[in-house]
Request: fold
Amino acid sequence: MGTKRRIKDRGKSGHLRPEIVAAWMAGDVAALQFALHSSPWEPSPFPYEIAGPLGCDEDDEPPDNPDKQKSLARALSWQRKLLAAVGWPDCRPEYEKNLARAQKIGDAEEIEYRREVLAGFEATRAEWAQRIKAAHVAPE
Reply:
């Protein structure tokens, strides 16, 4: 007698689950990595401004290693899905933490950059809110 086994979802299916959206909206890098079942060294779907060196961007050069190429492609795919579905995350605390870290180090260029990123936060969120609103409006 045969049995049909259910395939367990390991987070690789690409479905937007509530814990993924919650981690994205909170700007929580570690929680998003956990929700996506990503290894800590894999690229995060968050941009560099939030995740630091683990972040990713569409302009990134593809790595030489095929496994790293897959990881980057997966992170970029999640980034596009999350931006299209829910917009820019509420990452003000992360921006403030990055600014405080730069001030502690004393790097003037980094401090200026982090201040600009923090100042443009609301404008970026408003821009993504408009994009989502426009995408969800049905054509007449």
Summary: The chain has one domain: 18-136. The chain has a mean pLDDT of 83. The radius of gyration is 18 Å. Residues 18-136 form one domain.
